[in-house]
Amino acid sequence: MNSKIGYLLALAALLVLPLAIYPVFLMKLLCFALFASAFNLILGYGGLLSFGHAAFFGGAAYVTGHAIKVWGLPTELGILVGAGGAGLLGVAIGMLAIRRQGIYFAMITLAMAQMVYFLFVSAPFTGGENGLQGVPRGTALGLIDLSNDLAMYYFVLAIFVLGFFIISRAVHSPFGQVLSAIRDNEARATSLGYDVDRYKLLAFVLSATLAGLAGATKTVVFQLASLTDAHWHMSGEVVLMTLLGGLGTIAGPAVGAGTIVTLQNYLASGPLGAWVPVVLGVIFVVCVLAFRRGVVGEISALIKKSF
Amino acid sequence: MTGAGTNILETQGLTKEFKGFTAVDSVDLKVRRHQIHALIGPNGAGKTTVFNLLTKFLIPTRGKITFNGQDITFAKPAEIARKGVIRSFQISAVFPHMTARENVRIALQRKLGTSFHFWKPVSSLNKLNDRADALLDMVGLSRFSDAMVTDMSYGRKRALEIATTLAMEPELMLLDEPTQGMGREDVELVTQLIRKVSANRTILMVEHNLGVVSTLCDTITVLQRGAILTEGTYAEVSSDKRVKEAYMGKAA
Fold first, then answer.
1. Residues of B in contact with A174 (CB under 8 A)
2. What is the rounded distance in angstroms from the CA atom of residue A254 to the CA atom of residue A6?
3. Under a CB-based contact definition with an 8 Å cutoff, are residues B63 and B73 in contact?
4. What are the two backbone dihedrals, phi and then psi, of residue A62, each rounded to the nearest 5 degrees?
5. Which pLDDT band holds residue A268 (cuts at 50, 70, 90)?
6. Nearest to B122 by CA among B105, B107, B141, B97
7. What is the 3-state secondary structure (H, E, C) of A274-303?
8. A-chain residue closest to B166, CA distance
9. Which of A124, A210, A229, A111 is nearest to A162 (CA)?
10. A192 contacts in B (CB within 8 Å)?
């Protein structure tokens, strides 16, 4: 009940926030919040550390950019094509990776994501180092002109809410129950008749698709898909966001993403500009040492204790 | 075929080799229906390996395993679980970050066929609650149905594990040292539970505690160095000189 009120308050805040804060920054924040939430589905609820989620984020960014710019698809369809492409990539990488656990799973996902990255570096349609530029924002449903930042913001917010709802529903579904069981004790889940690999694969593909949705939306916002989106730094950053906000909590990754993106933005323009990675590194170390459950995890533990 | 007295599980020449070392050496095991059958033996006798072969967590090098006359030698662990062979683990196998009721529901929900449905609310599983609570009640955990399993005592976790196993309506329960690492009270509790749930079921257990074996089991198979040393009732087995030697060493 309490969490429902919390979500409604957060939604209300998100609806009025662009009146006070630069909408493009908020859109970036929402895209990364969705990306981290999608990532949390596989790490926090599936217990699998993927180190290659940039492949889905960046892959969808390029596919959507290409679909809208070159094929001339409408914006919504372009985003869906991008997310679908990330999902297909998720099937391919997932089938290989889920056979292994722990560090091997992380290494396979990293290696596959690197292959995808080098494909983007050399493929002609990505524009190489320059990125895929000048992607038109187009219109929403053929009616609302998205070149207006405020209109674009509400479009992004709608996508974020939809993605976030899918994730929280998946976590609290019959499937989510089995997934938690597998995370807690895989051998036991097997001995209760579950083919655990198939459940892990579905979780991985869902996570990849929604990470793709975030990357695709980001392309439309910035009218650009670049190598940064697919670089392994991006895979690392999303781990950081998720851990900082709270692994395996619904709202945690969004909070973590908000914190990191805000810090990056404000630090970059201040005197610490060159030191952003160092500051983030220190935050990460403090987070792991002092509050391992992340911001949201620690807060909800406190609330539980005081009742 | 399915009446009492027939064999529910059989192995023929079951062998497992690990790089030149024979852990299990042509074991012919017959588990009769509706019995409690124990597998005992000194450390390193191959009990756990046999157990893992039967539960398909290991693949045999040679030999054949049949369950109800069906060849399950190369079946997958999840597959035999769906046929009604459910195992337990040495360390209590529960899902710690879920409630006791959710633990039992995991076993019940597969039959609903909605376990891949990520778009359905979790409340769609509430129709299983009555059955889950009844199972928890049976093992004396009805007060704990909403408790997080992490916070429960070891004996209660074991009881919960049994409730979850029962939810699968197993024909054959394979228990891996069910009383290992327990204090006397918990041993008593779990022994009574096993007796209670053994009605109309077959149980094969690996057990160290001879007290438990003597009070519970109908048939005892003694393993030594990967092979069957002898088999019989507790009275027969315990009076066998070779069994004493296997456990205590040869009398001087």
1. 109, 112, 114-115, 117, 120, 122, 124-125
2. 14
3. yes
4. -70, -45
5. confident
6. B105
7. HHHHHHHHHHHHHHHHHCCCHHHHHHHHHH
8. A192
9. A210
10. 81, 86, 106-107, 110, 164, 168
In chain B, what residues touch A175 (CB-CB under 8 Å)? 115-118, 120
Residue A173, chain B, CB below 8 Å: the answer is: yes
Mean pLDDT confidence for A258-274 = 83
pLDDT-above-90 percentage for chain A? 54
Helix (H, G, I), strand (E, B) or coil at A5: helix
Q: Tokens 């990754």 correspond to what residue? A: A253
Q: What is the mean pLDDT of residues A70-74?
A: 90
For every one of its 252 residues, what pLDDT tens digit does chain B have, with 9 covering 90 and above? Answer: 455 568 999 999 999 998 888 899 989 999 999 999 999 888 888 888 998 999 888 999 999 999 998 999 999 989 999 998 988 877 778 999 999 999 999 999 988 888 999 999 998 999 999 999 999 998 888 899 998 998 888 888 888 988 998 898 889 999 888 888 778 888 888 888 888 888 889 999 998 888 888 888 999 999 988 888 888 888 888 888 888 887 777 654
List CB contacts of B72: < 8 A, sequence separation 6 or more.
B56, B65, B66, B79, B80, B83, B85
pLDDT, chain A, mean: 90
Based on C-alpha coordinates, what's the Rg of chain B?
19
Taking the C-alpha atoms of residue B252 and residue B241, their distance in angstroms, rounded to an integer, is 13
Q: Enumerate the residues of chain B whose CB falls inside 8 A of the CB of residue A195.
A: 76, 78
| 3-state secondary structure at position A140 | strand
**Vertex A174, ends A168 and A180: CA angle to 5°?**
70
Edge-first strand order for the sheet with B36-40 is: B85-87, B172-176, B202-206, B36-40, B219-224, B227-232
Specify whether the CB–CB gap between B132 and B148 falls below 8 A: no
Domains defined for chain B, CATH in brackets: 1-84+170-252 (3.40.50.300), 95-168 (no CATH)
Distance in angstroms (rounded) separating the CA atoms of residues B201 and B220:
17
Q: What percent of chain A has pLDDT over 70?
A: 99
Cα(A95)–Cα(A91) distance, integer angstroms: 6
Query: Which residue of chain B has the CA closest to A190?
Result: B78
Cα-based distances in Å from A83 to A65, A163, A206, A304, B134: 12, 11, 10, 37, 44
User: B221 with B231: CB under 8 angstroms?
Assistant: yes
Distance CA A195, CA A174 (A): 15
CA distance A60 to A78: 10
